[in-house]
Amino acid sequence: MKIYTRRGDAGETDLFGGERVRKDALRVDAYGEVDEANACVGLAAARLRDDDVAPLLQRVQSALFDVGAHLATPDAHHRAKAKVPTVGADDVAELEAAIDRFESELAPLATFVLPGGCEAAAAFHLARTVCRRAERRIVALHALEPVDEAVLRYVNRLSDLLFTLARLANARAGVADVAWVGRERG
């Protein structure tokens, strides 16, 4: 199988199910943002190789592929017929359990923190912001066409997990989170 098809050279792409749309269509933008978030999660995972985090991040990356497939298949009947995977309540619950587990290692959050710290934390903060952008695109799509509520919940909770993992990476590296204190105007 060749990596290039030339079918997209005129600025269109195929959705799963056969419909052709412009590459700047909101749906394509939404699953493209999810793909970018997935790549950022992969980068963060490469920076933090903790045995208790790596398997979770592999499941997250697989789930993000499922989210992308769901978004690339607008027809619910076709999704069901083709058995397109998606995320559900169990996936959201797994993220929440992980957040709770990792937060137990952290000092309580008393203020906003600046993105950064150790390399792994910075990568998780980047993944978080890209995840939030993907969420905004999915919400915009949902305003026009229905998107499974579990997809919305999953992406929202994922950004919370990524924030928690940024703080965890800093804590495990012995690097303090930097509190946002604002700037005086003068």
Secondary structure layout plus pairing:
Blueprint: E1 12-14, E2 20-22, H1 26-47, H2 54-71, H3 76-81, H4 89-103, E3 113-114, H5 119-144, H6 149-173, E4 178-179
Antiparallel strand pairs: 1-2, 3-4
Helix pairs in contact: 1-2, 1-5, 4-6, 5-6
Summarize the structure.
By secondary structure, the chain is mainly alpha-helical. The chain is 60% helix and 5% strand.
Notes on the structure:
With 186 residues, this protein is mainly α. The chain has six helices and four strands. The chain has helices at residues 26-47, 54-71, 76-81, 89-103, 119-144, 149-173; strands at residues 12-14, 20-22, 113-114, 178-179. It has a two-stranded antiparallel sheet. Strands 3-4 form a two-stranded antiparallel ribbon. Helix 1 runs antiparallel to helix 5 (119-144). The radius of gyration is 18 Å and the shape is elongated.
